[in-house]
Write a structure and sequence with these properties.
97 residues
């Protein structure tokens, strides 16, 4: 059996600024990953791309509310780590304890 988990549901985000939306994405990773990593069948955690400038979620109909660009991934357009990266790293670190 294979499990696929995606905490990147951008359409539900209502934050007005990038930092607010990034914090919400990180919160979702933090809520989901620690639980998922406890399941032996979970072998990998995969995002759809590495950085926001490479996501297919920037095309219709995946744009956020008001046509805003989504920010679902661990790195921003300039490949700088975001709060999502920190949440993913923390989940893996805590899972190894």
């Amino acid at each position: 059996m294979r499990w696929f988990v995606c905490p990147q549901a951008q359409g539900l985000l209502t934050g007005s600024g990038d930092a607010e939306r990034d914090a919400e994405v990180a919160r979702r990773y933090h809520l989901l990953l620690p639980t998922a990593l406890k399941v032996p069948e979970v072998k990998i955690v995969q995002t759809w791309a590495l950085s926001d400038n490479a996501t297919w979620q920037r095309e219709e109909p995946y744009l956020g509310p008001g046509g805003r660009l989504t920010r679902p991934l661990p790195f921003d357009d300039a490949l700088q780590p975001k709060a999502a990266y920190d949440a993913i790293a923390r989940a893996f670190s805590e899972a190894q304890r």
